[in-house]
Specification:
The chain has helices spanning about 5-10, 65-75, 85-90, 95-110, 115-120, 155-170, 185-200, 215-225, 240-250, 265-270, 280-285, 285-300, 315-325, 370-385, 390-395; strands spanning about 15-25, 40-50, 55-60, 125-135, 175-180, 205, 230-235, 255, 275-280, 305, 335, 355-360. It is α/β, with parallel strands linked by helices and about 400 residues long. The protein has two domains: about 15-115 and about 370-385, Enolase-like, N-terminal domain (Enolase-like, domain 1); about 120-365, TIM Barrel. The structure holds D-glucarate (GKR) and magnesium ion. Magnesium ion binds near residues 207, 209, 233, 234 and 256.
């Protein structure tokens, strides 16, 4: 039998679903594949109801996601935002359903006068700890239209400078180094200098996005073990290779690459490739699925953290509500947010203090679009004409014979 609020709110109907591709200015951050383009792509979903409410969701960008969301519109319009199972049945793809689910939860929260975390089971913490996300980087893109006063960061010494600035400006107590960029020994040296300069209390992580061989992964693990590493994220690619590394080292291994769906979980338990899974509501099918994932992880002795990609404040609000409602969250969450030059949400709702963000108490997600900035992000998407992320192609503009071979080293 339908639960009581359906009777009370059965008139709520989604009257319109808007899908808007947007692009944010993104500095030339390096990773194992290449370098970030001058813009990072996102898609904003707006759901309007017959009661005059608007719910917001945000997804990874790219032409396939825009198309899948456009195709989902007919399954969403006319539906009740509280009936998430009914919508999911018609929109089964996790990455497509995620921004729709978040927008529905935003609507449901607004309709009920409760923050989204209350719809996920309720908050277990009032502040969410984040890790500062350090990237090696190139000089400013020539065509970049944001502020980039970080300069080139391609040495251990420069990375220590970046780390100190992250701590000074945001108070992060944990730092994650995006690795797989410099030769492994230089990245070990980067971590060594960071530990020496930052002292023993700052948490350190490294994530080379699966670019290293098993042998290199083990060798690096042995070299960084004395530095006290919180966890070692995706040094190599695939569950079998990760499990081999894990058997050889004594340091928690983490992933957002080899366990990315519920179908992977049986092997995540039997092969034990990792100790930590980074949840990501954009990938796993929304906030409620991530709560379910975290419960599963706790039941099977796996820790949890949270993954991030380049994102705006709609995603950040969703991540904060999720982290608030995940009793099993073990580690500070990732976020790319400090690299965002201009958000599309109103005001400045996210100010890191001591590396943490407070959980919003307003109904829904607690963010609203700044129409002017939103329009300018949509215009930037059209102006750059980039419809799919291509870090390797961007790198080839700087190094013409660049070949992102995996595994490297
Ligand atoms: O933005 O270059 C990047 C990151 O490498 C991103 O693509 C990853 O998804 O942050 C990510 C990670 O933790 O693997
Ligand atoms: Mg990762």
């Amino acid at each position: 039998m339908a639960l009581s609020w359906k009777g009370a709110r059965s008139q709520v109907r989604i009257t319109e679903m808007r899908v808007t591709p947007v692009a944010m200015a993104d500095p030339p951050l390096r990773n194992s594949v290449g370098v970030h383009q001058p813009v990072a792509l996102r898609v904003v979903v707006q759901l309007a109801t017959d009661e005059g409410l608007t719910g917001l969701g945000e997804a990874y960008g790219g032409s396939a996601r825009v198309a899948s969301l456009e195709a989902a519109r007919k399954c969403v319009e006319g539906k009740d935002p509280f009936q998430l199972f009914a919508i999911r049945r018609e929109v089964p793809d996790p990455g497509t359903f995620s921004p729709i689910e978040v927008a529905c939860l935003d609507l449901a929260g607004q309709a009920m006068g409760r923050p989204v975390c209350d719809l996920l089971g309720g908050r277990v913490r009032d502040e969410i700890p984040f890790s500062g996300y350090l990237f090696y980087k190139e000089e400013r893109h020539p065509e970049y239209d944001g502020v980039d006063d970080w300069g080139k960061v391609l040495s251990p010494e420069a990375m220590v400078g970046e780390a100190r600035r992250f701590i000074r400006e945001y108070g992060f107590e944990v730092l994650k180094l995006k690795g797989g960029v410099l030769p492994p020994d230089e990245e070990v040296e980067t971590l060594r200098q960071m530990r020496e300069s930052l002292g023993p209390d700052v948490g350190l992580r490294i994530d080379p996005n699966g670019i290293w061989t098993v042998d290199t992964s083990i060798r690096v693990a042995e070299a960084i073990a004395p530095l006290g590493i919180e966890y070692y994220e995706d040094p190599t690619i695939g569950m079998d290779a990760m499990a081999e590394v894990r058997r050889a080292i004594d340091m928690p291994l983490a992933t957002n690459m080899c366990v990315t769906s519920f179908a992977h979980l049986p092997h995540a338990v039997s092969k034990r490739p990792v100790d930590v899974i980074l949840v990501d509501h954009h990938v796993w099918g929304g906030l409620r699925e991530c709560v379910r994932l975290a419960q599963f992880c706790a039941d099977f002795g796996i820790s949890t953290s949270m993954h991030s990609n380049s994102h705006y404040g709609i995603s950040l609000a969703a991540m904060v509500h999720l982290a608030a409602a995940m009793p099993e969250l073990t580690y500070a969450c990732d976020t790319h947010y400090p690299w965002v030059v201009e958000d599309i949400v109103q005001g400045e709702p996210f100010t890191f203090r001591d590396g943490k963000l407070p959980v919003p108490t307003a109904p829904g997600l607690g963010v609203a679009l700044d129409e002017e900035k939103f329009a300018s992000a949509a215009e930037r998407y059209r102006r750059y004409g980039i419809t799919d992320r291509d870090d390797a192609g961007e790198m080839r503009k700087r190094v013409p014979d660049w070949d992102p071979v995996v595994p490297r080293w």
